[in-house]
Amino acid sequence: MFYFQRMGEVCQFQFVLSILLLMECTFMSTQFSAMSQTIKGLPLLYQGKVRDLYEVDNRHLLMVTSDRISAFDVILPNIIPGKGVVLTELSNFWFKWALHLVPNHLQLAEKTLKDVFPDPEQRSLIASRAVIVRKLRGLPLEAIVRGYLIGSAWKDYNSKGMICGTRLPEGMCIADSLPEPLFTPSTKAGLGNHDENVSFEYIVDSIGPKLAEQLRTISLDIYRKAATYALKRGIIIADTKFEFGLDEYGNLVLMDELLTPDSSRFWLANQYQSGTSPPSFDKQFVRDYLETLDWDKTPPGPELPSEIVAKTVIRYRDVLKLITDAELNTF
């Protein structure tokens, strides 16, 4: 049963909400405490807005996806229960789906969770939200592809008539389909800083023309094929961002996450209407709430009401079901 069906069922929603309230109070102190003991002994190399990276050896990392949520590049004080599991399952699905298009950090790993955590009980504490990945040299940019005029692209279009140096036709409306998908890269800012949209020429200057062209071609190819797949399942992928790294031979490798509600805008095809901002099955729901507050988008972030947390959980779980047919039974 999906989100748009659930919302009319007030009693069921209130039950879900009460369970989430209890989970939110206990999840960090129990599950994450046990996870910390499991990971003890592996050096923490990096803690991002959502993912934590631990060193396994000189060729591998343990990547653990938390339930933290960020918006406008600020980590919010709430967690979204089960979010890390959804992101991991959905990314794993897409990485496998995209194997024929580009290598990824899971595919190149020579070790598994079982190799690193041979004890089944210990491994079970992190298995639903952790993967072993290949160490890569990350590129300092985000490869964004847009198929629709929404978000910062809509703001740039209104002020400049163009997106990342590409001029668009006059008279377009919010949420309009673009004449063709656009590669609109951005810088990759550190914690607490904001990414900035940049031109393709900027990327050429940063990483060289050959790699920049390869990055653009692969990003557009993944987006087009994924958008076609998702549309058959009733989902519009309005835009998405990819992250890439280089292996020791200089080969381009897809990394981090892939086509998740954190990195993409998902709309229901049967509710899409040009000229309005469609209901989303992604982090945009949280951003829209935050835009109603008197907050300057700098740390510390505001606390999310329990109702916003609950509705976000439902959206994340439902998009996993719509795209993969998987039921999320683990928090």
- How many helices in DSSP terms? 10
SS elements, strand count:
15
Q: Quick check: average pLDDT?
A: 88
Low-confidence stretches: 1-11, 25-29
Strand portion: 15-25%
Oligomer kind: single chain
CATH homologous superfamily identity of the largest domain: ATP-grasp fold, B domain
Proportion in helices: 25-40%
* Count of distinct structural domains: 2
Shape: globular
CATH class of the largest domain: Alpha Beta
CATH topology group of the largest domain: D-amino Acid Aminotransferase, Chain A, domain 1
Describe, in plain words, how this protein is organized in 3D.
- By secondary structure, the chain is α+β, with helices and mostly antiparallel strands.
- It folds into two domains: 3-134, Phosphorylase Kinase, domain 1, CATH 3.30.200.20; 137-281, 2-Layer Sandwich (D-amino Acid Aminotransferase, Chain A, domain 1).
- The chain contains ten helices and 15 strands.
- It has helices spanning 3-6, 10-39, 83-97, 113-116, 120-124, 152-160, 200-207, 209-232, 284-290, 306-324; strands spanning 44-47, 51-57, 60-65, 68-71, 74-79, 130-134, 137-138, 141-148, 162-163, 166-167, 177-183, 186-187, 235-246, 252-255, 264-268.
- Strands 7, 8, 11, 12, 13, 14 and 15 form a seven-stranded antiparallel beta sheet that branches. Strands 1-2-3-6 form a four-stranded antiparallel beta sheet.
- A hairpin with a 2-residue loop joins β9 (162-163) and β10 (166-167).
- It starts with a helix and ends in a 7-residue tail after the last helix.
